[in-house]
Amino acid sequence: TEQHDALAEHLRLTAEEVGPDRAGVILRKTGIRYADLHPRRDEVRKAFIAARTTADVDGVLARWYDPTLDWPPVLRREGMDRVAAGAVLEE
Questions:
Q1: 48-77 residue pLDDT tens
Q2: What distance in Å separates the CA atoms of residue 37 and residue 39, rounded to the nearest whole number?
Q3: How many CB atoms lie within 10 A of CB 21?
């Protein structure tokens, strides 16, 4: 839920700055990084990579960050260091 809210707010703010047509293209890069913190990392990364429009990014958020679903806990992966995780959270 927290990641959904953070990404949705980021998308909204990006749309305010660059317009709704470009916001999704810009946010997908951040979404790919956020995917490292998702319990279904590989599938979410692929979904963000495939996203080409703001509507596509909205679809990724609706599908993979649905706050009504009971997602499994995120397990820290080997090789994901504190700096990489911090970079995701600071953007």
A1: 999 999 999 999 999 999 988 887 777 665
A2: 7
A3: 10
